[in-house]
Write a structure and sequence with these properties.
By secondary structure, the protein is of the alpha+beta class. It contains 12 helices and 13 strands. A 6-stranded mixed beta sheet has the order 5-4-6-3-1-13, sandwiched between helices. The chain is globular. The mean pLDDT is 95. Bound molecules: adenosine-5'-diphosphate (ADP) and magnesium ion.
C-alpha cells in the first residue's frame, strides 16, 4: 500500500515516541512530469501529476519561537530560532525545512514555533521531487500552527522562492506547484507563465509507471545551470530582432529557425528542444482526454528523443530503461522525466498490463549496482493536505 497513510503513520508514531503527545499530520506528494521537460523555466507548459509517494510531517506548535525537526530518513534532529533565519542558508536536509519558515516570514506572514517529525517514501534525488514534497508539507504544517490560510498556488511560489533563495537551487515552479495543488485522478496542465492550470483526467485504461535507473544525478546541478544559461543566451539573441520576446515561450518554431544563423549551434539546439517541447503538454493532454493512448505514447517518445539529441540530458541508463520499456508488452511510450542525467523514466502502460510490465522490467533492467530496477505504478494523487 502506498497511500499517504504509510509515511503519515511512521511520522505520527515517531512523534508520539519522541514527544508523548498526539500530533497533527500534513502530507505532500512527489510528482512525475508526464511531458514538458525544461520548459518551466522558459515560461512554458508542463504536465505533472501528483503521485502516491509522499513526505509526511507530524507536527505540533511550540510557544518558544523555535523550529525543531527530526527526519526519520536521515535520523537527525535539528533546531533553529526562527528570528535567526536569513537567506542564503545551506543545502542540507534541514535547510529545506528552515527555508520554508524563512520564506513565509520574509513574505510578511506570521510564523510560529513548531516541533516536526518528517518521514517519506519518495526516492531521494531520483527526479520525483522529494525536495518539493518536503517543502510543501512543511509549509502546510507551518500554515496550520501559524493560522495562515492555505492557498496552494501562493504557497507553491513561496516554496519555490525558499528553494531558489535559501537553499540556492535554481528550480522552476513545477515541482512545488504539483506538490501543493495536484488533484486525485488527474495530471495538471500548467502554464508556468501565469500559473493557470487545467486538470487533465487520466483515463482508467492508462497507467503511468515510474522506473528508476538507480543512478543518482550527482553532476546534474552544473549541467542544469548551463542549460538554463543557453536558454537565456538564445532569448538575448532573439530579442535583438524582437524586443517583445521575454522567454522561449514567446518564440515560434519558424521564428527560431530564422534566427539560427545568429546563434552558436549548441545554443540553437537547446532552444529548439524547448520551443518544440512547449506544445507537447497540450498534445499529450488532448490525447489522454480522447483516450488515444497511441498518440499519447508517441508524444512521450518524441519528447525523449528531443531531450537526448537536442538538449543532451539523457544517459546510458535512461536510454536502456526507456528502450526496454518500449519493447515490453503493454507500453505505448516512455521517456526520461525530471532534469535528466539519471534518475527516473516514465512509461505509459495499458492498466491491465501494468503489473506484468513491472515484473518484466524488474527482470530485464538492472541498475549499475546490480540490483533490479525500482518500478512504481503511480496513482494520481491529491496535493498537500492534512490527514
Ligand atoms: P529530488 O529530485 O528528490 O527533489 P533533490 O536533490 O532536489 O532531489 O532533493 C533531495 C533533498 O531533499 C535531499 O537531499 C534532502 O536534503 C531533502 N529531502 C527529501 N526528502 C527528505 C526526507 N524524507 N527527509 C529529509 N530530507 C529530505
Ligand atoms: Mg528537487
Amino acid at each position: 500500500m502506498n497511500s499517504p497513510a504509510v509515511p503519515a503513520m511512521r511520522a505520527r508514531q515517531r512523534f508520539i515516541d519522541l514527544h508523548g503527545s498526539e500530533p497533527l499530520v500534513a502530507v505532500a506528494p512527489g510528482r512525475v512530469n508526464l511531458v514538458g521537460e525544461h520548459t518551466d523555466y522558459n515560461d512554458g507548459y508542463v504536465l505533472p501529476m501528483g503521485i502516491d509517494l509522499h513526505v509526511a510531517v507530524a507536527f505540533a506548535p511550540r510557544r518558544d519561537g523555535q523550529l525543531r525537526a527530526r527526519s526519520v530518513t536521515v535520523e537527525e534532529t535539528r533546531q533553529v530560532d526562527l528570528v535567526e533565519l536569513s537567506a542564503p542558508g545551506g543545502s542540507e536536509w534541514f535547510d529545506y525545512v528552515a527555508a520554508v519558515a524563512w520564506a513565509l516570514a520574509d513574505a510578511g506572514e506570521p510564523v510560529g514555533g513548531i516541533d516536526m517529525v518528517i518521514a517519506g517514501n519518495i526516492p531521494i534525488g531520483s527526479g520525483l521531487s522529494s525536495s518539493a514534497a518536503l517543502e510543501v508539507s512543511v509549509a502546510r504544517a507551518l500554515c496550520e500552527v501559524s493560522s495562515v490560510q492555505w492557498d496552494p498556488p501562493k504557497m507553491a511560489r513561496l516554496c519555490q522562492r525558499a528553494e531558489n533563495q535559501y537553499v540556492g537551487v535554481n528550480c522552476g515552479i513545477m515541482d512545488q506547484y504539483a506538490a501543493a495543488a495536484s488533484r486525485a485522478g488527474c495530471a495538471l496542465l500548467l502554464d508556468c507563465r501565469d500559473l493557470t492550470v487545467t486538470p487533465v483526467e487520466i483515463p482508467s485504461r492508462a497507467s503511468f509507471v515510474v522506473m528508476d535507473t538507480g543512478v543518482r544525478r550527482t553532476l546534474a546541478g552544473s549541467a542544469y545551470n548551463r542549460r538554463r544559461a543557453s536558454c537565456e543566451a538564445a532569448v538575448a539573441r532573439l530579442r535583438e530582432r524582437d524586443p517583445a520576446i521575454r522567454a522561449l515561450r514567446d518564440v515560434t518554431p519558424d521564428g527560431l529557425a530564422a534566427a539560427e544563423p545568429l546563434m552558436h549551434p549548441e545554443t540553437y539546439s537547446r532552444a529548439k528542444h524547448v520551443v518544440e517541447e512547449m506544445v507537447r503538454p497540450q498534445q499529450l493532454a488532448e490525447a489522454l482526454q480522447a483516450g488515444d493512448l497511441e498518440t499519447a505514447g508517441r508524444v512521450m517518445n518524441e519528447s525523449h528523443a528531443s531531450l537526448r539529441d537536442l538538449y543532451e540530458v539523457s544517459s546510458a541508463e535512461l536510454e536502456e530503461i526507456t528502450e526496454l520499456a518500449r519493447n515490453t508488452a503493454g507500453c505505448y511510450g516512455a521517456r526520461m522525466t525530471g532534469a535528466g542525467f539519471g534518475g527516473c523514466a516514465v512509461a505509459l502502460v495499458e492498466t491491465d498490463m501494468a503489473s506484468s510490465f513491472v515484473g518484466r522490467m524488474q527482470r530485464r533492467y538492472s541498475a549499475p549496482g546490480g540490483e533490479s530496477g525500482y518500478c512504481h505504478i503511480c496513482v494520481p494523487s491529491d496535493g498537500a493536505k492534512l490527514v
